[in-house]
Amino acid sequence: MNITNPKHPKSLQKFLTPDEVEQILNNTKIETPAGYRNRTILELLWATGMRISELSGLNFGDLNLEHNEIRVFGKGSKERIILVTDRAKNFLERYIESARALIPKGFPVPDKSEDSPVFINNTGYRLQTRTVRNVINEVVEKINLPKHVTPHMFRHSFATHLIENGADLRVVQELLGHASISNTQIYTHVSTQHLKDVYNETHPRA
Fold first, then answer.
1. How do residues 30-57 score in pLDDT, each as one tens digit?
2. Suppose 45 and one of 134, 154, 166, 196 were both cysteines; which one would form an S-S bond, judging by CB atoms 3.0 to 4.6 Å apart?
């Protein structure tokens, strides 16, 4: 007789509140070209829910900012279109126009051809994901946020807040690039937990 082990329920993803996200964004220094790039990156992660690897892989040919769209290549090189808020787009446009050319120190600045990387480091090469992780760690440590914040938490937060505000699950699935709706359904559990927390905090008989 074959016995199937019970499936373990997926653990609830940790996410940031909108206030916590704004706190991180507002404490990311933008006085230097690299600082402005870092703020732009965090604005994009928050606005789009893209993976950090997708952001690192962005080329100029992927941008369609006139229509607030960016093309990304997710797992398995699967292509999808994600949407960008006006606020994140404005940061990105200013970064491209001004800050990007000032980031490399004594190294050539890559052009803006279709295959050129959008985000570069101080040697002019494509920005690596570990740099973004370091930026987040520095800001979180400075503001004493009592959470271990990763770039992926911005993705979780993006999806959670969309669903909390009534977004259709299929739309969120498409924006995240999930192959299966079951991968997206975890965020409904997170949203339900949020409802329970609010209920318990506010209902007089809870």
1. 999 999 999 999 999 999 999 999 999 9
2. 154
